[in-house]
Amino acid sequence: MDPRKLEDILTRSIFSVLPSKEAFKKELGGGRRLRIYIGADPTGPDLHLGHATNFIFLEKLRELGHEIVVLFGDFTAMIGDPTGKDAARKRLTPKEVQENIKTWKKQVEKVLSFSDKKNPAKIKKNSTWLSKLMFSDIVELSAHFTLQQMIERDMFQKRIKEKKPIYLHEFFYPLMQGYDSVAMNVDVEVGGSDQIFNMGIGRALQKKINNKEKYVIATTLLENPKTGKKLMSKSAGSYIALNDEPKEMYGKAMALPDEVIVPMFTDTTRVSMGEILEIKKTLKKGEDFHRAKMRLAYELVKMYHDEKSAEKSQKDFIQMFQKKGLPEEVFVVYAKKTEALVAVVVRAGKVGSKSSWRRLVEQGGVSNMNTGEKIKDYQEKIKGNMVVKIGKKDFLNIKIKR
Fold first, then answer.
1. What is the pLDDT of residues 212-231, one digit of tens each?
2. Which of 49, 41, 2, 47 has its CA nearest to residue 219?
């Protein structure tokens, strides 16, 4: 194997490797075909660029000839992963899970090939084996771990301090995810760095039940380096979805803060690290962040759609903002369809109060830039995506939350 390609696989977007990076490197270079999987729970209909980091990594391994399995957690979604949550997740019904999962394959195959004739990636669902477990099986699995191991997790400790409830079924989640590794008899599990505990449970079960080593590959989370907050959050409604239309994807990328340009290039595109380092150098020298962001938006649309769509999205973006006199980077806020416009504008901090908004509208100081018309009704409701001009120089790009 090309040493440079191997080094890229083992370093780019990699947070940690268990038992060690050296051991996994030796395994990759040994010629054995590995069974590698990633799991995702269908808690919503959209996959986003935060998920794409892992799919890009898996596609590189698939290209090397390894067996890739994408596991849709249709059973575990009905339990709810407690990772990083200060309250229990909402438990989904089987109907909700199936509705969410409908377009997932179509979204994932933007990055990972299911149609390659020689080595296609596969899809499995964990209800296939988890729904068949008897209560005696659950007891047997539970006997491998202590309550102390489960309760030591940081989010549970936080809830204990805040006197918030921890539900018994939440302890079953890592156990069920861990059993996925046993049921599929995998060699490697891939997931975000926030999943290390859950993946470690699977590693322990694989050793105890199948007497087999399982490598855990924890990838970096897509975060803002300044704030430490996740860039793609389904619960907050702020994300770039894999099934966003090209124009929408381009616009959302242009609205990202400057400091996330390099992490986005690294974790969500296949632009070479050499090129990314050059982009990083130019930004450090104080060169045009806007130009780098346009390159990022172009690469994203090109990768998740095609080059023709990227060219058109870039052209449309430039024309829209230049012709309408809009700044090329406009603050984005997400809203629900039929939500009152005033509520969204106040939430975004563009006006101080509802009464201020009413005066501004009555004075003709608010315009819908999509139509070029003044907004006359201060109680107007949002019908779709829109850019609003507030006063002489302030703009707000409102996107409908899925």
1. 999 999 999 998 888 888 88
2. 49
